[in-house]
Amino acid sequence: MARRKLVAGNWKMHGLAADLGEISAVSIAAETAGADVALCLPATLIERAVRAAPGFAIGGQDVHQSDKGAHTGCVSAAMLIDAGASLTIVGHSERREAQGESDADVKAKAESALLAGLSVILCVGESDAVREAGDAVSTVSSQLDSSLPRGDVASAGVPDRLAVAYEPIWAIGTGKVPSIADIGEMHAALRERLKAAYGEAGEGVRILYGGSVKATNAAEIFGVDDVDGALVGGASLKTSDFLPIVEAAR
Ligand SMILES: O=C(CO)COP(=O)(O)O
To answer: Is residue 198 in some structural domain?
Structure first.
C-alpha cells in the first residue's frame, strides 16, 4: 500500500522566539514538499509558531491523559489544540524513562489526544541491552500492543491520525543507526501488530523511523519497506539540516 511519507521534527527542549524564522522557513518549503512535514515544539513556542507559519503542522511533544485538573506542569489535548497544534508525540523514550511513563499511560495519552482531534505519533523502541540480548522485535512488538489506542477511540483515529515511530533508544542522539535489515525486520513486525489490532486499517498507519536520521542516511532508510517517514531530533533544529531529509522523502 502506498502511504505518503511523514517527516516530523522533534525539537525536544530547544527553541526560543529567536528560532521562529527556522520554523517559517520549513513551513514554506513544506508547501512544495513531496511528503507531509511537521514540527513538534516545546509548548511555550506552539502558539507563536502557528502564527509564524499559518497552515503548517505544529505539534506538542507530550499530552496529559485528562482534559483538565490538578496536574502541575502538564498540558491537555484541548490546550494543545487551543494553542493551534494539530498533532502530538506520545510515549517518547525520554519521557518513558525520565517520567516513568508506562505503556498504559502512553495508551491513555494517545486515546485522549485522538478523541480531542489531534493526530498522534506514538513512540516505541528498545534499549541497547534488549537489542544485544536478541529480544528487540519481541520487546518492541509487545510494547506497541500495550500502548496502542483501542476501542471506539481507535476507530475514530485510525489510520489517518495515528503514526507509530520506531526509535531504538541506543540510536537516539548517538549517531548509531540499526542496519537496514534490522529496520526492515522491525517495521514489518510492527505492521503485523497494527493489522492484528486494526485489521486492514492497520495498513494505513504510518510507521516512522527515528534515531540519528541525517541527510546522509535518510534516503536509504526511506527506501526500506514499511518505513513511512522519520521522526528527527537533532537534525530538525536547523532548516539546512532538516530540509534535505524532507527532500529525501520525496
Ligand atoms: O529522539 C529522536 C526523535 O524523537 C531522535 O533524535 P535524534 O534524531 O537526535 O537522534
So the answer is: yes
* Helices (H), ranges, the chain: 20-30, 43-52, 77-82, 93-98, 103-116, 128-132, 136-147, 151-157, 180-198, 218-222, 239-248
Average pLDDT, the chain: 96
pLDDT band at 55 (very low <50, low <70, confident <90, very high): very high
C-beta of 159 in contact with ligand 1 (< 6 A): no
ipTM over 0.95: yes
pLDDT confidence bin for 119, thresholds 50/70/90: very high
For the chain, the domain total comes to 1
Residue of 12, 88, 127 best suited for mutating to test ligand 1, as the one with most atoms within 8 Å of CB: 12
CATH number for 176: 3.20.20.70
Decide: 233 in ligand 1 pocket, CB within 6 A.
Answer: yes
175 lines ligand 1 (CB under 6 A): no
Catalytic residue numbers read 92, 167
